[in-house]
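Quick question, first post here. What does this chain look like in 3D?
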Amino acid sequence: MGAQWKAKHKDLAANARGRLFGKLAKEIMVAARSGADPASNARLRLVVEQARKVSMPKDTLDRAIKKGAGLSGEAVHFEHVIYEGFAPHQVPVMVECLTDNVNRTAPEMRVLFRKGQLGTSGSVSWDFDHVGMIEAEPSRADADAEVAAIEAGAQDFEAAGEGGATVFLTDPTDLDLVSRALPAQGFTVLSAKLGYKPKNPVDPASLSAEHLEEVEVFLAAIDANDDVQNVFVGLAG
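> Answer (accepted):
Ran it through. C-alpha coordinates below.
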Protein backbone atom coordinates (compact mmCIF):
# COMPACT_ATOMS: atom_id res chain seq x y z
CA MET A 1 0.00 0.00 0.00
CA GLY A 2 2.86 2.33 0.73
CA ALA A 3 2.46 6.06 1.13
CA GLN A 4 -0.93 6.49 -0.47
CA TRP A 5 -3.57 3.80 -0.21
CA LYS A 6 -5.63 2.97 -3.28
CA ALA A 7 -8.60 0.65 -3.13
CA LYS A 8 -8.34 -2.66 -4.92
CA HIS A 9 -10.05 -2.43 -8.31
CA LYS A 10 -11.34 1.03 -7.41
CA ASP A 11 -10.59 2.23 -10.92
CA LEU A 12 -12.98 -0.40 -12.29
CA ALA A 13 -15.95 0.70 -10.19
CA ALA A 14 -18.82 2.28 -12.10
CA ASN A 15 -18.81 5.47 -10.03
CA ALA A 16 -15.04 5.77 -9.57
CA ARG A 17 -14.60 8.17 -12.47
CA GLY A 18 -17.21 10.57 -11.13
CA ARG A 19 -15.68 10.46 -7.64
CA LEU A 20 -12.22 11.11 -9.09
CA PHE A 21 -13.51 14.12 -11.02
CA GLY A 22 -15.19 15.40 -7.86
CA LYS A 23 -11.96 15.17 -5.85
CA LEU A 24 -9.96 16.83 -8.61
CA ALA A 25 -12.54 19.62 -8.92
CA LYS A 26 -12.08 20.39 -5.21
CA GLU A 27 -8.30 20.45 -5.62
CA ILE A 28 -8.65 22.76 -8.60
CA MET A 29 -10.97 25.15 -6.74
CA VAL A 30 -8.59 25.37 -3.78
CA ALA A 31 -5.56 25.89 -6.03
CA ALA A 32 -7.37 28.53 -8.12
CA ARG A 33 -7.70 30.79 -5.06
CA SER A 34 -4.13 31.89 -5.84
CA GLY A 35 -4.98 32.74 -9.45
CA ALA A 36 -6.90 31.31 -12.39
CA ASP A 37 -3.91 31.12 -14.76
CA PRO A 38 -2.06 27.77 -14.56
CA ALA A 39 0.99 29.36 -16.19
CA SER A 40 1.56 31.56 -13.13
CA ASN A 41 0.06 29.23 -10.51
CA ALA A 42 2.22 26.11 -10.12
CA ARG A 43 -0.18 24.29 -7.82
CA LEU A 44 -3.07 24.84 -10.21
CA ARG A 45 -0.97 23.78 -13.18
CA LEU A 46 -0.13 20.43 -11.57
CA VAL A 47 -3.77 19.65 -10.74
CA VAL A 48 -5.00 20.77 -14.17
CA GLU A 49 -2.47 18.50 -15.86
CA GLN A 50 -3.64 15.60 -13.71
CA ALA A 51 -7.28 16.36 -14.56
CA ARG A 52 -6.50 16.41 -18.27
CA LYS A 53 -4.65 13.09 -18.07
CA VAL A 54 -7.78 11.40 -16.70
CA SER A 55 -9.91 13.14 -19.35
CA MET A 56 -11.91 15.45 -17.10
CA PRO A 57 -14.40 17.30 -19.35
CA LYS A 58 -13.18 20.78 -20.27
CA ASP A 59 -16.42 22.39 -19.07
CA THR A 60 -16.03 20.76 -15.64
CA LEU A 61 -12.39 21.85 -15.46
CA ASP A 62 -13.10 25.45 -16.50
CA ARG A 63 -16.05 25.72 -14.13
CA ALA A 64 -13.93 24.55 -11.18
CA ILE A 65 -11.21 27.10 -11.97
CA LYS A 66 -13.71 29.94 -12.20
CA LYS A 67 -15.47 28.94 -8.97
CA GLY A 68 -12.19 28.69 -7.08
CA ALA A 69 -10.91 32.00 -8.40
CA GLY A 70 -14.18 33.74 -7.57
CA LEU A 71 -14.99 34.48 -11.22
CA SER A 72 -18.34 32.70 -11.36
CA GLY A 73 -20.20 34.65 -8.71
CA GLU A 74 -20.55 31.50 -6.59
CA ALA A 75 -19.02 31.52 -3.12
CA VAL A 76 -16.97 28.41 -2.43
CA HIS A 77 -14.72 27.64 0.50
CA PHE A 78 -13.06 24.36 1.37
CA GLU A 79 -11.05 23.81 4.52
CA HIS A 80 -8.07 21.46 4.54
CA VAL A 81 -8.23 19.10 7.52
CA ILE A 82 -6.04 16.13 8.51
CA TYR A 83 -7.35 13.32 10.72
CA GLU A 84 -4.81 10.99 12.32
CA GLY A 85 -5.27 7.61 13.90
CA PHE A 86 -5.05 3.87 13.44
CA ALA A 87 -6.81 1.35 11.27
CA PRO A 88 -7.53 -2.02 12.89
CA HIS A 89 -4.44 -3.81 14.24
CA GLN A 90 -2.56 -0.58 14.89
CA VAL A 91 -1.85 0.36 11.27
CA PRO A 92 -1.21 4.14 11.26
CA VAL A 93 -3.41 6.24 9.00
CA MET A 94 -3.53 9.88 7.93
CA VAL A 95 -6.73 11.06 6.25
CA GLU A 96 -6.63 14.26 4.21
CA CYS A 97 -9.97 16.03 3.76
CA LEU A 98 -11.26 19.06 1.90
CA THR A 99 -14.57 20.05 3.43
CA ASP A 100 -17.03 22.91 3.27
CA ASN A 101 -18.38 21.97 6.70
CA VAL A 102 -16.02 20.69 9.40
CA ASN A 103 -18.98 20.29 11.74
CA ARG A 104 -20.26 17.61 9.38
CA THR A 105 -16.94 15.97 8.60
CA ALA A 106 -15.62 15.61 12.16
CA PRO A 107 -18.46 13.43 13.50
CA GLU A 108 -18.42 11.37 10.31
CA MET A 109 -14.71 10.66 10.86
CA ARG A 110 -15.37 9.67 14.47
CA VAL A 111 -17.93 7.12 13.29
CA LEU A 112 -15.64 5.77 10.56
CA PHE A 113 -12.77 5.37 13.02
CA ARG A 114 -14.84 3.31 15.49
CA LYS A 115 -13.28 0.10 14.15
CA GLY A 116 -9.87 1.66 14.55
CA GLN A 117 -8.71 4.50 16.74
CA LEU A 118 -8.99 8.22 16.03
CA GLY A 119 -5.99 10.08 17.45
CA THR A 120 -5.22 13.69 18.24
CA SER A 121 -3.12 16.04 16.12
CA GLY A 122 0.48 14.79 16.07
CA SER A 123 -0.35 11.31 17.38
CA VAL A 124 0.54 9.69 14.04
CA SER A 125 2.06 12.42 11.85
CA TRP A 126 5.41 12.15 13.67
CA ASP A 127 5.81 8.76 11.98
CA PHE A 128 5.31 10.16 8.46
CA ASP A 129 7.46 12.43 6.27
CA HIS A 130 5.68 15.26 4.43
CA VAL A 131 6.93 14.96 0.85
CA GLY A 132 6.13 15.67 -2.77
CA MET A 133 4.96 12.55 -4.62
CA ILE A 134 5.23 12.33 -8.39
CA GLU A 135 3.86 9.30 -10.21
CA ALA A 136 5.53 8.88 -13.60
CA GLU A 137 6.07 6.26 -16.28
CA PRO A 138 8.94 5.91 -18.77
CA SER A 139 8.37 7.54 -22.15
CA ARG A 140 11.37 5.88 -23.78
CA ALA A 141 13.07 2.50 -23.52
CA ASP A 142 16.35 3.77 -22.05
CA ALA A 143 14.75 5.79 -19.23
CA ASP A 144 16.44 5.05 -15.90
CA ALA A 145 14.56 5.97 -12.72
CA GLU A 146 17.68 6.37 -10.59
CA VAL A 147 19.39 8.66 -13.09
CA ALA A 148 16.15 10.60 -13.61
CA ALA A 149 15.75 11.12 -9.86
CA ILE A 150 19.30 12.48 -9.54
CA GLU A 151 19.14 14.71 -12.61
CA ALA A 152 15.65 16.07 -11.87
CA GLY A 153 16.46 16.83 -8.24
CA ALA A 154 14.25 14.25 -6.52
CA GLN A 155 15.20 13.08 -3.03
CA ASP A 156 14.43 9.43 -3.74
CA PHE A 157 12.27 7.15 -5.86
CA GLU A 158 10.22 3.98 -5.49
CA ALA A 159 10.55 1.63 -8.43
CA ALA A 160 7.40 0.72 -10.29
CA GLY A 161 5.68 -2.45 -9.21
CA GLU A 162 3.84 -4.75 -11.59
CA GLY A 163 1.60 -2.56 -13.73
CA GLY A 164 2.33 0.48 -11.57
CA ALA A 165 4.18 3.76 -11.92
CA THR A 166 7.50 4.93 -10.53
CA VAL A 167 7.04 7.32 -7.61
CA PHE A 168 9.59 10.13 -7.31
CA LEU A 169 9.82 11.69 -3.85
CA THR A 170 10.77 15.34 -3.43
CA ASP A 171 11.07 18.05 -0.83
CA PRO A 172 7.60 19.69 -0.70
CA THR A 173 9.00 22.95 -2.10
CA ASP A 174 10.57 21.14 -5.09
CA LEU A 175 7.44 19.37 -6.33
CA ASP A 176 6.81 21.63 -9.34
CA LEU A 177 10.52 21.93 -10.21
CA VAL A 178 11.03 18.15 -10.33
CA SER A 179 7.75 17.64 -12.21
CA ARG A 180 8.97 19.98 -14.92
CA ALA A 181 12.39 18.30 -15.10
CA LEU A 182 11.31 14.65 -15.37
CA PRO A 183 10.10 14.71 -19.02
CA ALA A 184 13.63 15.60 -20.17
CA GLN A 185 14.81 12.47 -18.33
CA GLY A 186 12.44 10.20 -20.24
CA PHE A 187 9.48 10.10 -17.84
CA THR A 188 5.88 11.18 -18.37
CA VAL A 189 4.33 12.65 -15.21
CA LEU A 190 0.95 11.11 -14.37
CA SER A 191 0.27 12.97 -11.13
CA ALA A 192 2.06 15.24 -8.70
CA LYS A 193 0.91 16.14 -5.20
CA LEU A 194 2.02 16.64 -1.64
CA GLY A 195 1.54 13.66 0.65
CA TYR A 196 2.80 11.63 3.58
CA LYS A 197 5.26 8.75 3.45
CA PRO A 198 5.44 6.39 6.45
CA LYS A 199 8.81 6.18 8.21
CA ASN A 200 8.22 2.78 9.80
CA PRO A 201 5.52 1.00 7.81
CA VAL A 202 3.93 -2.15 9.19
CA ASP A 203 4.99 -5.31 7.35
CA PRO A 204 1.85 -6.94 5.86
CA ALA A 205 3.44 -10.34 6.56
CA SER A 206 2.98 -9.60 10.26
CA LEU A 207 -0.80 -9.57 9.76
CA SER A 208 -3.01 -12.53 8.97
CA ALA A 209 -5.12 -12.56 5.80
CA GLU A 210 -8.19 -11.92 7.93
CA HIS A 211 -6.58 -8.94 9.63
CA LEU A 212 -5.43 -7.49 6.30
CA GLU A 213 -8.98 -7.79 5.01
CA GLU A 214 -10.24 -5.87 8.04
CA VAL A 215 -7.72 -3.12 7.31
CA GLU A 216 -8.85 -3.00 3.65
CA VAL A 217 -12.53 -2.76 4.61
CA PHE A 218 -11.75 0.03 7.07
CA LEU A 219 -9.74 1.99 4.49
CA ALA A 220 -12.39 1.53 1.80
CA ALA A 221 -15.04 2.99 4.10
CA ILE A 222 -12.81 5.99 4.87
CA ASP A 223 -12.04 6.57 1.20
CA ALA A 224 -15.72 6.45 0.25
CA ASN A 225 -16.48 9.55 2.33
CA ASP A 226 -17.14 12.52 0.04
CA ASP A 227 -14.89 14.86 2.04
CA VAL A 228 -11.85 12.57 1.90
CA GLN A 229 -9.22 13.49 -0.69
CA ASN A 230 -6.35 11.12 0.17
CA VAL A 231 -5.65 8.30 2.59
CA PHE A 232 -2.02 7.71 3.61
CA VAL A 233 -1.30 4.41 5.34
CA GLY A 234 1.71 3.06 7.21
CA LEU A 235 1.62 -0.34 5.57
CA ALA A 236 4.51 -1.54 3.41
CA GLY A 237 4.13 -3.01 -0.05
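The first helix runs from residue 16 to 31.
Strands lie at 2-4, 79-87, 91-99, 117-118, 128-138, 156-158, 166-170, 187-198, 228-235.
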